[in-house]
Amino acid sequence: MSARCQVLGTTPGFGHSVSHSHVRTKRRFNPNIQRKHYWVPSLGRRVTLNVSARGIKTIDKLGIDVVVARILARGEKV
C-alpha cells in the first residue's frame, strides 16, 4: 500500500535522524495511513479508501458523500 492519503493527498516527508553524537542519517516520515471501508449512499455501494488519520477526521466533519465527490472530481478511482 502506498503511503498516500486519497482524501488529503498527504505523502511522506523526508528529513534526518540526529543521533546523540549529532550524526545525521536520512529518514522518512510516513503519514498514518489506514485502509477504511465506508458506505456511500450516493453511489449505493461500499468504497475502500486509503486515508490518513487526519483524513478520517475530515470525512467525519464533511461527510463521506462530499469527500467521495471531491475524489471523483479529481479523476481518481474509488
UniProtKB/TrEMBL annotation:
<dbReference type="GO" id="GO:0006412">
    <property type="term" value="P:translation"/>
</dbReference>
<dbReference type="InterPro" id="IPR026569">
    <property type="entry name" value="Ribosomal_bL28"/>
</dbReference>
<keyword id="KW-0687">Ribonucleoprotein</keyword>
<protein>
    <recommendedName>
        <fullName>Large ribosomal subunit protein bL28</fullName>
    </recommendedName>
</protein>
<keyword id="KW-0689">Ribosomal protein</keyword>
<dbReference type="GO" id="GO:0005840">
    <property type="term" value="C:ribosome"/>
</dbReference>
<dbReference type="InterPro" id="IPR034704">
    <property type="entry name" value="Ribosomal_bL28/bL31-like_sf"/>
</dbReference>
<dbReference type="GO" id="GO:1990904">
    <property type="term" value="C:ribonucleoprotein complex"/>
</dbReference>
<comment type="similarity">
    <text>Belongs to the bacterial ribosomal protein bL28 family.</text>
</comment>
<dbReference type="InterPro" id="IPR001383">
    <property type="entry name" value="Ribosomal_bL28_bact-type"/>
</dbReference>
<dbReference type="InterPro" id="IPR037147">
    <property type="entry name" value="Ribosomal_bL28_sf"/>
</dbReference>
<dbReference type="Pfam" id="PF00830">
    <property type="entry name" value="Ribosomal_L28"/>
</dbReference>
<dbReference type="GO" id="GO:0003735">
    <property type="term" value="F:structural constituent of ribosome"/>
</dbReference>
